[in-house]
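Quick one: structure for this chain?
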Amino acid sequence: MKHCLILASIFIFFSSCNQNKVVEKTDYNILNEQDRASLKDELLEDRFTNLLPELMDKADLDMWLLISREYNEDPVLKTMLPATWLNARRRTIIVFYRDKENNTLERLAVARYDIGKSIKSAWNKEEEPNQWKALEKIISERNPNKIGLNYSTHFALADGLVKTDFDELNAAMPTSITSKFVSAEKLGIAWIETRTKKEMELFQKLVKITHDIIDEAFSNKTIQPGKTSTEDVVWFLRQKVTDLGLETWFHPTIDVQRNNEALNSHIESFSKAKDEKIIQKGDLLHCDFGITYIGLNTDCQQHAYVLKEDEKEVPDFLKEAFVQGNRVQDILTTNMKAGLTGNQILANSLQQGKAEGLRPSIYTHPLGKYGHSAGTTIGMWDSQNGVPFNGDYPLQKNTAYAIELNTTVFINEWNKDIRIMLEEAGFFGDDVFRYVNERQTAIKPIKID
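Got it. Here's what it folds into:
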């Protein structure tokens, strides 16, 4: 019953750094710290019980060995720590042993402590002072066929075993064990990229929170033309996240396109910091913003337009340009098919978009446990002909993505190009794509009274 209550939306107050200021009660529906911890551990136990055995079988590994030291955690191991473990402790060693014949999965910690309630300590230091020998005994008793270690040449998140631990492990183990070491790259990626049903319930709420914060930032509550700068809005976003007791995994940006300024080149737009500008009526605004909550991350780009005195809605020529941005999204998501590589999806989508007269650029990335997560990479802003290695990874089911892209549109009324830049969280399930919490389908009008 308690878990059901945790999954339900609740309202809470958060105090900001200013002790005299209290954040008003809102509809953001953010859990308090204790309930967040309970939900995080519930989601983790569900992944260990119902997901990990399947992933280990698919990767053809019957043992997975993860090793980290405090403050230098393997990115995969970091996602396995319970809510009360903010970091590894001393040297933390986790052993997962999959007995497929008996349909069991052992979760053991060669550590002084249980790792929460999901992973039990299997080392009595008083009986065996040497941690490596304790590990050797666990491995020898189970006699696995393959032992997966987290090293990878091209996928950083699957390359978490540091050199010192790798060297000490190899030095401490007999050849009968070291000869079974193989890369756990596919398993590490699968663990990071795969979303469970319970996680998606949380993820939908998180994306809605992200959208709601953007709505507040892109409003006359926050923006006063002629006074408010783009940096003011950036720091509004940062402060709002802090006040709500959340975190952001990257510094947000706000940029402006207007009729009397030429569009920056593609390279300049993505490789240089955004100049601070005072927001004016008639500006087309764009944000890039994401937050972190209970082990998941969002990444979102949306547009707003500051209405002029004689305007009651966004001009038609901007509405029409935005439709082209949505069309590029549709082209990409309909080309996402299980088993196709990111490079194949990219090539198919760009070819179709250009055939329709669009000028698209696609740079979509996996999203979830990390903002720029592990999995299928579908282009990069500076790699529109394909991404070596990471782009060759095939699309898997039950994975999430930041559908990130843009299209360049010539605006007759402004006699210049503009760029419609969009990014929304999407989920690829059983060969069906859906947005996690809808997508922006119209530029947000900011009416100034």
